[in-house]
Write a structure and sequence with these properties.
homodimer; 454 residues; five-stranded mixed sheet; four-stranded antiparallel sheet; 22% strand; globular
Chain lengths: 454, 454
Amino acid sequence: MEIYTNIPEDLKQVVLERIKPTVAERKNLIGIQEELATEVKAAAEKLGAHDVLVKMVGSAARGTWLSGTHDIDVFICFPEETLRKELETLGIAIAREVAKLAECVKDCHAEHPYLNIVFKGFDVDLVPCFSVLSASHIKSAVDRTPFHNDFVKARIKGFEDEVLLMKQFMRGCGVYGSELKTQGFSGYLTELLIIHYGSFENTAKKACFWKPGEIIDIMQHSRIQHQESLVMVDPTDPKRNVAAALSLDKFCIFIDYCREFLKNVEIKFFFPPCFLPLRDKEILQRLKNRKSALLAVFIKTPNIVEDILYPQLYKLEHSAAVLLMDYEFSVIKTGVWSGKNETLIMFELISGTLPNVKKHVGPPVWVKEHAEKFKEKYERTEEVFGGYIENGRYTFEIQRKYPVAKELLEKQLIHCSIGKNLRHSVNAGFKIIENADICTLKDPNFRVFLSKWL
Amino acid sequence: MEIYTNIPEDLKQVVLERIKPTVAERKNLIGIQEELATEVKAAAEKLGAHDVLVKMVGSAARGTWLSGTHDIDVFICFPEETLRKELETLGIAIAREVAKLAECVKDCHAEHPYLNIVFKGFDVDLVPCFSVLSASHIKSAVDRTPFHNDFVKARIKGFEDEVLLMKQFMRGCGVYGSELKTQGFSGYLTELLIIHYGSFENTAKKACFWKPGEIIDIMQHSRIQHQESLVMVDPTDPKRNVAAALSLDKFCIFIDYCREFLKNVEIKFFFPPCFLPLRDKEILQRLKNRKSALLAVFIKTPNIVEDILYPQLYKLEHSAAVLLMDYEFSVIKTGVWSGKNETLIMFELISGTLPNVKKHVGPPVWVKEHAEKFKEKYERTEEVFGGYIENGRYTFEIQRKYPVAKELLEKQLIHCSIGKNLRHSVNAGFKIIENADICTLKDPNFRVFLSKWL
């Protein structure tokens, strides 16, 4: 086993200075949390919901939030026997009462409806849930969160800085966040890693040797097999993998990042330099150097949350790549970018055109019936250049249906596997942009994406 | 089993009228054979080789030769106990004595030296051989021929027309001839097929259902397994497959031809229309229609016999195609043509150029040592566009070494697997011709080849 150098204490301090909330920040947050608790309790009382409990959950409640983030999760816990309908109506009513004090209110919907408000500059989720006996008896997905909170709170004292270091390190690496756009590490997962391995340094060192199928079971209570790259058995629910959302690539990117960091312990891993938006000239230069073909499917960004949008974008990205490959275009890579107005699915191809002639290999001559049918079909087709026998098989040179990738996408994209919401946008009209025409897209965020992707 | 229509008697007669030697032709041939036998015997006597026998073998001797062909095989048979050296010296001396009467003499070499002469307009091989006890005790490959002759002569009487029909049919199909250029059916193989199946018609009908691995063992004496498509166990030597030279494709082309013929019994299968040499305009039109890339390796035709030249050409054709594919060029098809002066190995490609960028996929990140070495290597390389992790594997976009197929062949063809004789020609210099430049080649035979190939 390779011996990596230890991480100098002063480096950690330099990082923490930049990411650890100050005493004032902390005090402010606690004040806001208390205020919110009081408001929720009052609203519940006012609406006759006397048996409702208010719980502060999430990193803010556990002292593991990064300075500068302003997220508070307030859970409005109803007794287990409450009817689902009543929880939804009354829960939202309470939340709406509190929201009267907010600068901004957004109606959200996971398994239940909940409110997202901006309250004194904080981004606050007001989430109704059931108070259940244990995390394995939840009635709704969100019911689990209070158990996570309790588990972590009971064990994280004294390790908060390690969690902060790891979160910032993962941010630098681009793997922090379990939302479906990122498919990385959730805050809870990060905390469990620190609880399990004891420190940021030890986690990073151990991660260097991770392999897909890595299992961490803090409570030693799992009894089922998981297929994911990393399995962090939920200490509060033996059936659940906390790392289920982590993709293979993000798992590997993290492993790689840990190795690089430990080979060369530097602050830049926590705060990597920003990518600058590519200028037109730079785009053109890169295209010229690569000499590949660039295609982008351009649609209007649908008005849906990212957790719904991204899975559908990734699905279409994959499905369109398969379409291109089915028609013999060689795909070098694909990518997805979505901004406020424009959404793009990008393809880099070996070539955007193919010859008219396409070789179509049929069955072996000696598989008589099959072979004769094949031959008959293609002999009768007008658009055939020629036919011969090669390696014992009937082989016809036929007219390629789509010699131009752009035309293929224009005609066939709508037949790809497209999620319901995205389908709407695609049907409303899409455009295929090729090569240098990508410069017509000026959004600086897109240009930053391009700077990494191209 | 499909029922094919029978072949009308009058069709066979029409064909035979055109291919069966006339009485005068036959008489002339017999006369020439007798004359040659006398001359060889006299020469042998003159040189003191009193125990030499003269044998007429081949189709001329068996009455199965096609009108218009003028081939006579004269075997000069020495007693088995003759020393190899003596056979070679004395054999050639006898042949050379006979050759004094010839219009033209050529020194040839198979396992032994022999002479090919033109005698009164006939193409005559004068071949020294050993008289052995049986075909399984031969001392030299040619010793087998007299046994073949005896076997066929004893059984072919009355079936000569059937052999002629089959030979002409195979000619029309392009599968007649066992030389290494054609890799088709030898005359002996054709005769054995007729002996086995009883007629041209029955052979054609049975062939429709052939599969690779088809075994015909007239004497029921084979005890070994063969790998070839068609196994015709030599009736005179149980270990030998008479059809060993038949390629899979020629085997299949014949099957296909039989099916087509029996579906539609027409004389054109015996005398297919000639392909006309393509004119420049036609070449250009075809290239334009196909929109593929054409490349030809052009060398000076080496001064060697076809049986040596073609295997080396096919080997180079295959090896160069593998080279192109190794460098990611997609090969649609390949071809070989060799004329008196010019020899060409042709490649049709999806595209003659590829982008500069080449995707190079490495080991999975978790195969630590391996993966780290790979990453280190490419990170240090200057000619790298970028690197990322995809499907868990390190992936680098590197500078493609040969983005142009022509340059790849120019630089790397010499490292292909090239036979000794061809190597000479390649080393002496080759040229790569692209696309429309193929029109610089005016040889009408090449243009005929192109008409079929392109």
